[in-house]
Write a structure and sequence with these properties.
Layout lengths: L2 E6 L3 E6 L4 E5 L5 H13 L4 E7 L2 H7 L6 E6 L5 H4 L24 E4 L2 E2 L5 E3 L13 E5 L8 H12 L4 E3 H4 L5 H25 L3 E7 L5 E3 H6 L7 H16 L5 E6 L4 E7 L2 E2 L1 E2 L2 E3 L2 E3 L3 E2 L2 E3 L5 E5 L5 E7 L18 H7 L8 E2 L3 E2 L2 H11 L3 H19 L11 E5 L3 H11 L4 E4 L6 H7 L3 E8 L6 H22 L7 E4 L4 E5 L4 E12 L6 E3 L5 H9 L8 E12 L16 E2 L2 E4 L4 E4 L3 E5 L5 E5 L6
């Protein structure tokens, strides 16, 4: 019996076993699970996987393409338009044509109910009649005013609607945090995605004895739980690559780095400081704020399959439209006629002329040249434009956050990442490029080695009551630990370990449960918060982030966040290191899962954990 990690991308589906075997098969857009099964068959034959740790794009694609369920919203009387009023900020300050995305719930399906509960549960307005949901609705989101503090009415409404046969997402279960707009939108997104994700994960359930799914926060949850909380899966695949990339960077002496994941459809970058990927309590996807624990990954529509063309003004544009896996780039020989970044890489000599991609066979250089010429673009021009876009993405997660990229390593992975990394690192004067082992399938490697994890958050009733907030933190640790042990049932706990401020460990005969507590704090009167390990550390953190502190001002604790996890039995660095060779540029290093371009003036050296470390000539390690 074996453990397998899988990552479904827009172009390829990647799989990795615990003993280091890999498979890379074209993704099947109509049925993503079919590609996973095809990959398992290639790796295991008739053998059944014991555990499948899976990263999925089903939730992301459904939201981006607006192909989710038809949703009704039940909310407190007077608040039906919150999801449309939003924050009243413009997507682009000076662009009069810029518009917000249409709400996921049309006005006629936003239904109201009379009710009011105080924070202590006192009924201010009795719960009125629960509305009848139209038959055309597939799912219902319930978000009542202040239910993050007192969910009594929301539970009653949700239970009644479920009794009537509806698929219900309640905000007190999905995102129990204050700020009505973000909480409402997150709950609606969850309801919008759940029918499709539930069907997909149910169909994948027998692919292994146990199926776990990667969340945006880089933790694994059982498939059944993932199906109930699909809003937590919007960065399912990319989070795995960031996790593995951070490990590879630290192993090679770079605890501070930027992970650079360039696949077939998109490029994802994330800042890593002190070996830890930067977290985010909220992120925007398809124009919608989603308040779920996540890694702070910045994504752009630039990948190997991104299509190049001239716009109406004659300027060269690359992406965000992608050729995907079908028909794919012109060089795939599957009927694609429009030029892509992969075609440009092949014509420019970064991909060997005799290269054969998994499941595709030899690439067609003549077709790539024909496609570029027909579009009136050159390979060098396409590469320059896409590199500029990715350089800007790296600046977003470094320079725009006050971090100098010159001291950081660029961790390059994905099928196309190692082809472009040196140009980006040179443009930003970065210290080195780290290409981890199995770079082309690194997201699957990270998913394979990800921990089993539970994330919880609660709003604080009295923001000035720091002792009460700390008590709430302890209660949430116990709740998260209980949930984890139910997902991986061990014998009763026999030891508790103090791991330092905000950290608690529970050791059982089979598992060690780690936990971390954070507090969202702000000065009274501020509108945004900082997460700290202890409310007493807020002044110092505020000074570090904002350049000043006000110790005389009262500090409010708005929410408490807890994460608890059990480490994977297979660590990211446990896989056997593959055989690799160094090189002095210009050189092309063709590997089973990716191709590495070493430009003139660069040298690739063997590093730790099977990685290649690329530096400019004269900066090699002595």
């Amino acid at each position: 019996m074996t453990r397998v990690g899988s990552d479904t991308g827009g172009t390829f589906t990647d799989l990795v076993t615990a003993d280091g075997r890999i498979a890379k098969v074209p993704s099947t857009r109509d049925d993503p699970g079919r590609a996973v099964r095809d990959g398992l068959a290639l790796l295991l034959g008739d053998e059944q996987a014991e555990t499948l740790a899976h990263g999925t794009t089903v939730a992301t694609n459904a939201l981006l393409e607006r192909k989710g369920a038809r949703v009704a919203l039940v909310t407190t009387a007077g608040f039906a338009d919150v999801i449309e009023i939003a924050r009243q900020d413009r997507p682009a300050l000076y662009d009069q044509s810029a518009t917000r995305p249409e709400p996921l719930v049309p006005r006629h399906l936003r239904l109201e109910v009379d009710e009011r509960l105080a924070a202590d549960g006192t009924e201010l307005v009795p719960l009125g009649e629960i509305p009848v949901i139209p038959d055309v609705v597939d799912a219902v989101a319930v978000c009542l005013l202040h239910s993050d503090l007192e969910p009594g009415h929301e539970w009653v409404v949700g239970a009644e609607l479920e009794f009537r046969g509806h698929d219900v997402s309640c905000s007190c279960d999905v995102s129990p945090e204050f700020r009505e707009y973000e909480r409402t939108v997150t709950t609606v997104v969850n309801a919008y995605l759940r029918p499709a994700c539930r069907t997909y994960l149910r169909d994948l359930d027998d692919a292994a004895d146990r199926v776990l799914v990667m969340t945006s926060a880089a933790g694994l949850v059982p498939a059944r739980r993932a199906a109930e909380r699909p809003a937590a899966l919007l960065l399912s695949g990319p989070a795995g690559g960031v996790l593995a990339g951070a490990v590879a960077a630290a192993a090679n002496g770079f605890p501070d780095a930027v992970t650079f994941d360039m696949g077939g459809t998109s490029t994802d970058v994330c800042l890593v400081l002190g070996g830890t990927p930067e977290p985010a309590a909220e992120r925007e996807v398809a124009g919608f704020p989603v308040r779920m624990p996540s890694l702070d990954v910045h994504t752009i529509g630039a990948g190997g399959g991104s299509i190049a063309h001239l716009d109406d003004g004659g300027a060269l544009v690359v992406g965000p439209e992608s050729a995907g896996a079908e028909p794919g780039p012109a060089c795939y020989g599957r009927g694609g006629r429009r030029p892509t970044v992969t075609d440009a890489d092949l014509v420019a000599g970064r991909i060997p002329a005799d290269a054969a991609f998994p499941g595709l066979g030899p690439l067609d250089r003549d077709a790539a040249e024909t496609a570029l010429a027909a579009a009136g673009v050159t390979a060098d021009g396409v590469l320059a434009v896409v590199d500029a876009a990715m350089e800007e993405a790296i600046r977003v997660v470094t320079v725009e956050r006050g971090v100098d990229p010159s001291g950081l390593a660029l961790v390059a992975f994905g099928g196309a990442g190692p082809l472009h990394a040196c140009a980006l690192a040179e443009a930003l004067d970065m210290a080195a490029v780290v290409v981890p082992a199995r770079a082309g399938v690194l997201s699957a490697v990270g998913i394979l080695g990800a921990p089993l994890r539970v994330d919880l958050v609660r709003s604080v009733v009295d923001p000035r009551d720091h002792a009460g907030a700390r008590l709430l933190g302890h209660e949430l640790v116990q709740e998260a630990t209980t949930q984890l042990l139910a997902q991986a049932p061990p014998p009763p706990a026999d030891r508790h370990d103090d791991l330092g401020a905000g950290l608690v460990g529970v050791t059982t005969a089979e598992h060690r449960v780690h936990s971390d507590v954070a507090f969202d704090c702000r000065y009274a009167g501020q509108s945004h918060e900082l997460a700290v390990r202890h409310p007493g550390r807020f002044h110092r953190e505020h000074r570090l982030r904002n350049g000043y502190e006000r110790p005389e001002h009262p500090v409010e604790v708005i929410a408490v966040r807890v994460k608890a996890w059990i480490e994977s039995p297979v660590g990211v660095d446990d896989l056997p290191a593959p055989d690799r060779v160094g090189a002095v540029g210009p050189a092309v290093l063709a590997e089973e899962d990716c191709t590495i371009w070493v430009p003139d003036g660069w040298v690739a050296e063997l590093g730790a954990a099977g990685a290649l470390v690329l530096r400019r000539v004269g900066q090699e390690r002595s």
